[in-house]
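Possible regression after last week's pipeline update?

I re-ran a chain I had predicted before the update to compare outputs. Posting the input and the new output here so someone can diff against the archived version. Not blocking, just want to make sure nothing changed silently.
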Amino acid sequence: HLVRGMHVLVPRNMTQAAGFYNTLLRGEDPAIVVEVLNGYRIKERVPDNIGEFTVPLGIPEILRAGKDITVVTYGACCRLVMEATALLSKTNIDAEVVDVQSLLPFDLHGVIVESLKKTNRIVFVDEDVPGGTTAYMMQEVLERQGGYRWLDSAPRTLPGKAHRPAYGSDGDYWSKPNVEIIFETVYELMHEAAPGKYPIFFK
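New output (post-update):
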């Protein structure tokens, strides 16, 4: 409730963040832009129109097209999900990756539901606490937008762990979703749907 009345934007990198800032500076609405900390360390190609191009609010972006399962995420988790889905493709799992980009407003045109109509399975991934933003996204997609009608498998959420933040150098790996956990979660969901096609080869 603290952020109602404001835009809440979650860009996956600093280029997308710049596009959001350009959009916001053309209006007068208050907003919070949650910048990715890793974005300050990862090299990106700077667009020639960095001070001019805009990113629309409330419009998710499909980062990877697929037909077997939809993986919904945002921010820093986009890079991890893309790595995991590249590995999943080697096991013949074709995952579609959707970057939400904007939490408020959220998916104004039903992009995620359209993806779900195609894949019939969905996983929500983020670094927030259990019952936090993944639960919010799941409610928006399945309940408010009626996406439950196209589910063939139980939806899954993959948030951070339910403990206080770790401060060690490897804290993020153990506290938040990582490539291995994302891979296993998606693979296990596909195994439930077709155990003969996707046998479990890890524990």
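Follow-up from reviewer: compared with the archived run. Helices lie at 14-25, 77-89, 111-119, 133-144, 171-175, 179-193. Marking as no regression found.
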